[in-house]
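Human: I would love a firmer grasp of how sequence relates to backbone shape in proteins. Could you go through the record with me and say what the backbone is doing? Here is the record:
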Amino acid sequence: MSFEKVQEALKGTELEHKLIQLDQSSATVELAAKALHTEPDRIAKTLSFFVGGQPILIVVAGEARIDNKKYKGYFHEKARMIPFDEVEKILVMCREVSAPLRCRVLYRYIWMYR
């Protein structure tokens, strides 16, 4: 998603003025850590999955990996990432749903650590 699209999505929220636009690429955890002069584990990355047909986002430390056994134990199904070419379409759809519904059903934030 482009910086401009993120900026537009956050317009009018408390996060609108907290965006940082870097001169260097931050496309990967390693590049983001380098651009921000920090360690990779201080970068949060968001992984998107389908659970029961609904999209969820899991935020983890930069170098963390999803433990498939723990994932299946928690969600009772095999991890299935949202395909790259579908992510933006799904996130735009989620943004257009009313906030309370979006928070309850479409976005479930789960913090998982190694």
